[in-house]
Amino acid sequence: QVQLVESGGGLAQAGGSLRLSCGASGSISSNYVMGWYRQAPGKQRELVADITGGGTTNYVDHVKGRFTISRDSANNTLYLQMNSLKPEDTAVYYCNAARKIGIMTANYWGKGTLVTVSS
Length: 119
Hints:
By secondary structure, this protein is mainly β. It is built from no helices and eleven strands. It has strands at residues 4-7, 10-13, 18-24, 33-39, 46-51, 57-59, 67-72, 77-82, 91-101, 104-109, 113-118. Strands 2, 4, 5, 6, 9, 10 and 11 form a seven-stranded mixed sheet that branches. A four-stranded antiparallel sheet has the order 1-3-8-7, with no helix packed on it.
């Protein structure tokens, strides 16, 4: 079993920055796609960004140019650098690890870390 633990959430002002971290209990192979999702009150959970084992990244339009996702394979850690924060970024952020097993997908989730951005 893979266990993921997020940290780094908190309160920030609009225009400020936060850096989220996600530590894995064990090594995460390059076969896993790692990602950050977020869920605001009354909203569906959405993908914010993800990154493959080869370093290919993908971002939702809302955060392009402001957020940067990265992974440190040696330390089994995923990061999300969030700059130029907006109140709309307020949400619980979840770390995710996913991989395909045949036609099935294995998904692992952290418990989330709250990010609050004040105006």
